[in-house]
Amino acid sequence: PPLGRILSLADFESLAQLVLSHKAWAYYSSSADTTSANVENARAFSRFFFNPRVMRPVRDCSPATKILGFDSSLPLFVSGAALAKLGHPLGEANITRGAHKGGIIQMVSSNASLSFAEVAAAAEPGQTLFFQLYKHTDDSLAVKRVREIESLGYKAIFLTVDALTAGKRECDVRAPWVLEDMENGPAYHVEGGPADIADDGGTAGALVGADDQNMTWEKTIPWLRSITKLPLVIKGVQCLEDAVLAAEAGCDGILISNHGGRQLDYSMPPLETLYRIRKRRPDLFDKMEIYIDGGARRGTDVVKAICLGAKAVGMGRPFLYAQSCYGADGVAKAISILDSEIVKAMKFLGAAKIEDLVPEMVERVDWQAK
Ligand code: FNR
């Protein structure tokens, strides 16, 4: 259909299933084991209801905000997801161009299918890009990577800490292919595949290489601080205790995430973790920026998290799907849909600016459990 007919992120998703190769769909959509973590990420949003305020002036309503001090037109960013070229020949550059048009920030994956220089080259002057780091076991290789992305102008590091081994994503493992030569971009053999399937034999298994499995708060954070001045966010924090440790370690932020349910099955939905942190340690929100990703698909989803104190919400799959269907225009359209949904939700809530979104505006109600 023409892009103008796309009304919601769900439309991109259904269309992506039609246009993507079997393997690409399996890789993008899959999640771990029973897929419960992924399903529950989205369902968590449906347990939170709004208490709107009326009779408040909202004609001039702005969803603009800052993330780590960088301007963003929305409290939304692109979470780094690997292998955009699987869905579209221009790959991550589509997301870069679409993000620029929509005024939001793209976090570029360590496993991007374009080089970090190619992604940077697709950016407009002044456009903000963040970098998602998988830390190599060999410190010197990690230093080299950090130097590279610093010199290319990436503005922050999101260190992923929830992917020390590959999640068991069965759809992806079953869909046959061989991933070759990441240096030159992936090449695909759709036929065949090994006779015996290893449980981490999917794309995730091929991508997880020599990631450092011995990172610690005490050692890794000071070490990273010693090699770079870029702001540091820990991606994959999943409980209150680790949020406290991240704040104590002086991190600039945490991204509460279970990797879109692709790693540990039955890991807590990020929105629920955010809610728990808000209830028990509201002071943490003043010490560092807290973001979530996983399962957010609507403007109201974003607004719920912002009410609970998140500085911004990340999305992974929706941008992969949008670029697979329509390239950069699809990404820009996805952002404009979310913009419109977020502004509507803010107006209905009586919020003219991001700071007007407060915890009292959302309530967790589990009707089923009552
Ligand atoms: C990811 N994610 C991810 N995270 C990361 O730190 N490095 C990576 O290379 C990838 N790669 C990746 C590939 C694909 C296909 C997906 C779907 C996800 C996780 C990603 O950053 C983010 O946490 C989730 O995608 C958020 O969940 P939603 O928005 O996809 O539900």
What does the model show?
The chain is 40% helix and 14% strand. It has 370 residues and is an alpha/beta fold. An eight-stranded parallel barrel has the order 4-5-6-7-10-11-12-13, surrounded by six helices. A two-stranded antiparallel sheet has the order 1-14. It is globular and about 60 Å long.
Give a topology summary.
Layout lengths: L8 H11 L2 H8 L6 H10 L2 E3 L14 E3 L2 E3 L3 E3 L13 H11 L2 E4 L7 H7 L6 E5 L5 H13 L5 E4 L9 H5 L4 E2 L6 E2 L14 H5 L9 H11 L4 E6 L2 H9 L4 E4 L13 H11 L3 H4 L1 E5 L5 H9 L4 E4 L1 H33 L12 E3 L6
Parallel strand pairs: 4-5, 4-13, 5-6, 6-7, 7-10, 10-11, 11-12, 12-13
Antiparallel strand pairs: 1-14, 2-3, 8-9
Rg, rounded, reads 20 Å
Rounded average pLDDT? 92
Proportion in helices? 25-40%
**SSE order, one letter for each helix or strand:** HHHEEEEHEHEHEHEEHHEHEHHEHEHE
Shape: globular
What would the keywords be for this entry?
370 residues; alpha/beta; eight-stranded parallel beta barrel; two-stranded antiparallel ribbon; 14 helices; 14 strands; globular; binds ligand FNR
In short:
The protein is α/β, with parallel strands linked by helices and about 375 residues long. The chain has helices at about 10-20, 20-30, 35-45, 90-100, 115-120, 140-150, 170-175, 205, 215-225, 240-250, 270-280, 285, 300-305, 315-350, and strands at about 50, 65, 70, 75-80, 105-110, 130-135, 155-160, 180, 185-190, 230-235, 255, 290-295, 310-315, 360-365.
